[in-house]
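Dear Dr. H.,

I hope your travels went smoothly. While you were away I took the liberty of generating a structure for the chain from your last submission, since the lab meeting agenda had it listed for discussion. I wanted you to have the full record in hand beforehand rather than looking at slides cold. The sequence, exactly as received, is reproduced here:
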Amino acid sequence: MIFPSWQRIVEQYRKRMNRLFSQNLWDLVKNPDLVNSPKFRKAANEIARMMVAEVAAENEKSWRAAAMKSTRARKIYELLRAEIESQNLGPKLKAIANENAALISSVPEDVARKITAHASKMYLSGERSVEVEQYVRALAPKLADSRIRLIARTETSKAETALTRERSLNIGADWYQWQSSRDSRVRPSHKNMDGVIVAWNNPPSPEQLIGEHSTLGRYHAGSTVQCRCIALPIVSLDEIRWPARVYTGSIVMMTRAAFAKKYGEKIAA
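The corresponding predicted structure, in token form, is as follows:
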């Protein structure tokens, strides 16, 4: 589920990328090497850093709210504050920003590749050069916008999950609960994962669990293409409505007592 605050971050990210390409998209498509210019690289890096900073700020607020719901709220809050003050997430935030800057820079090349395919088909069907150029010039912004929307939706969600995982592990919270967006657009594999308790060190293959062929492999909530699911960190077993579905290689129903016996009652430091 993309809550309003997260939707705002997605939209801001999309708009910033669109502004970056609005003036010089065609030049970049014709000469993708221009993305290596200092000016473009600086702009792409700035857009990526802004998205990551906004995600980190929102993630911090979500964690503070989650901590206050726990019976061990003060301990969790102190651990979270220490983690924030120590800036342990610095390297992770930088890595996410760098990955996103690279994705932004890939947009012109992706558009150029698709335009070339379209142009080739038109030439083979006998279209004149002037008609082909007019068509692909009009097509380029649409292709760029489609790619930008995909990046904004997917990467914002992936950044949120990555930060949630990092913060969870920093305070010793090894489990989370998978929550889907719970609407008509949820893919069957993710609908099946809704409410399932998952260990951060053991990501599932949601498609495989329902017998669906997929190349996506194993991943956490919010960490694959256009996934709108979220990972809700678990800092206390009191937060869970038992019995609950738990992923242990397969999805099994477990009581609180059975879970505590196998994994421990204390699941956060």
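Two observations you may find useful: The first strand starts at residue 175 and ends at 179. Residues 173-269 form one domain.

With kind regards,
E. W.
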